[in-house]
């Protein structure tokens, strides 16, 4: 089940205004250039920020996401016609021969179910040409990022054009081994409506991810740091065999 923050139209429209700093995507754009990628599959593309950055570089981009409301936001952006948008996940793709497949931000961790995770790795493998690369990030569990997901430390208030004032914050609801569940609350000043979105992320160990990649037909080329979050993320670079 896709989180409400991505499928509810009122919440999907807030994704970009509440998280305007996407400097985390700079490293992915540099890797697309580093690998000479001309065809890219962006898995879990959401509101299309990264897909549109790639398209601006003249790259042939397919953006896939199961949340129709998020894709509606993406399709309404300038330049959206240069991207092929698919409503679905990595198991719903047409035949592709991508040079690079990406899962930016929380996408890999949001695929918390083991069966869905393995299916995603298989789907990305099928979409890549031989020698193409899969790149994604996941938080280092040892850093226990969820301990800062409190109302006090995550509270944001923003004035969103056309919407008005919006307050939001996160609160952890459960920690069960590698699974961390949390609730995001949104309060709209214009009419007082309160909406919530429940999410669960899986915090995978580095060795677990490496094993999964090898088991699904990839060679692990590198595990990099996220330049904007040093020491907090594993950025996996895997080559399709």
Automatic annotation (TrEMBL):
InterPro entries: Methyltransf_25 (IPR041698), SAM-dependent_MTases_sf (IPR029063). CDD domains: AdoMet_MTases (cd02440). One of its GO terms (biological process) is methylation. Keywords: Methyltransferase, S-adenosyl-L-methionine, Transferase. Pfam families: Methyltransf_25 (PF13649). SUPFAM superfamilies: S-adenosyl-L-methionine-dependent methyltransferases. Coiled coil: none annotated. Residues 40-132 form the Methyltransferase domain. The keyword S-adenosyl-L-methionine applies. GO terms for molecular function: methyltransferase activity. This is Class I SAM-dependent methyltransferase. It comes from Streptomyces tunisiensis. The lineage of its organism: Bacteria, Bacillati, Actinomycetota, Actinomycetes, Kitasatosporales.
């Amino acid at each position: 089940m896709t989180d409400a923050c991505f499928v509810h139209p009122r919440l999907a429209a807030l994704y970009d205004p509440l998280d305007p700093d996407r400097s985390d995507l700079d490293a992915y754009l540099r890797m697309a250039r580093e690998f000479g990628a001309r065809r890219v599959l962006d898995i879990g593309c959401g509101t299309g920020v990264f897909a549109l950055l790639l398209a601006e570089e003249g790259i042939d981009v397919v953006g896939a996401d199961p949340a129709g409301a998020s894709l509606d936001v993406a399709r309404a952006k300038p330049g959206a016609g240069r991207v092929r948008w698919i409503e679905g996940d990595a198991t719903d793709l047409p035949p592709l021969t991508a040079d690079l497949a990406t899962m930016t931000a929380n996408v890999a961790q949001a695929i918390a179910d083991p069966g869905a995770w393995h299916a995603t790795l298989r789907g990305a493998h099928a979409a890549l040409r031989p020698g193409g690369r899969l790149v994604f990030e996941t938080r280092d569990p040892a850093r226990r990022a969820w301990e800062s997901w409190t109302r006090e430390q995550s509270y944001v208030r923003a004035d969103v054009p056309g919407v008005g004032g919006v307050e939001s914050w996160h609160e952890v609801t459960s920690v069960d081994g590698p699974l961390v569940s949390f609730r995001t609350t949104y309060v709209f000043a214009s009419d007082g409506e309160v909406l919530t979105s429940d999410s669960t992320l899986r915090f995978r160990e580095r060795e677990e991810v490496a094993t999964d990649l090898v088991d699904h037909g990839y060679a692990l080329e590198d595990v990099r740091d996220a330049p904007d979050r040093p020491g907090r993320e594993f950025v996996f670079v895997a080559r399709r065999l």
